[in-house]
Amino acid sequence: MKLIGSKTEQELREQLIKSKESLFGSEEKKRLLEVLRNIYPKMNTVYILHWIPEQGEDIYKVLINDNMIAVVELNRYNTKVEPEVQLMSVPQYIQGLNKQKQIKLAVAIDLAKQSLEK
């Protein structure tokens, strides 16, 4: 998907940057970061694409570097429960996504590529 610099893209860009900052800087996201580092040791950058707070767990969909999607389910109350993790490629993930989520993914990939070039 080609980015055009729209207002929607700019808002998503700001949202994704904040999600990355909270992941690397907040205590409450520390466990998610540890899980991601364990499953993908070559991780250099990561953006949270989607977060679903359920009753007993949190489900995160994250872009790792610019080519991998991880779906991570973390038990909110019992940290000893092993997280459920599913890895997939970007082409696998993009199938069936609505337009808004495709734009968000494209912006996240653009941000990741910029970050990886540094």
Count every helix, treating DSSP H or I runs of 4 or more residues as helices. Answer: 4
Domains, number: 1
Which structural class is indicated by helix and strand composition?
A: alpha+beta
Following the backbone from N to C, one meets helices and strands in this order, namely: HHEEEEHH
**What is the percent of helical residues?**
40-55%
Mean pLDDT: 93
Instruction: Give the spatial strand order of the biggest sheet.
Output: 1-2-3-4
**Main β-sheet: number of strands, strand sense, barrel status?**
4 strands, antiparallel
Q: Give the number of DSSP strands.
A: 4
What kind of assembly state do the chains in view correspond to?
single chain
**Unreliable segments of 5+ consecutive residues:** none
What is this structure, in a nutshell?
The chain is of the alpha+beta class and 118 residues long.
Write the layout of secondary structure elements.
Blueprint: H1 7-25, H2 30-39, E1 46-53, E2 57-64, E3 68-75, E4 84-89, H3 90-94, H4 99-117
Antiparallel strand pairs: 1-2, 2-3, 3-4
